[in-house]
Amino acid sequence: MIGRKPREELLRQELDRIIDRIDRVGIQKIILFGSLAKGIVNPMSDIDLIIVKRTDQRFLDRLDTVYRQIEPSMAVDILVYTPEEIANMIQWNSFIKKALDEGKVLYEAQ
Does some domain include residue 55? Predict the structure, then answer.
């Protein structure tokens, strides 16, 4: 339709806004994966992120914290893992391994 931005442009604008809003304290890495990372966006595409963060929070509390920070305006799927959890999951979780292998690092602590 005339006057409507393509889905990929909208997703990238939202992604930029999210990255700006995330509190980076304790974050080691932010990885974009899925259709947006692959450049094969369709009308149902969303933003898929893995955040690797040092934290003592329980898994669901981590998600709640991040979603409250970013206040997404469109569909966003975020997974927040500790470095130890990621290291363990790479060994047996093919979904996580593929996301890390094919994903794009958006932020990495120095």
Answer: yes
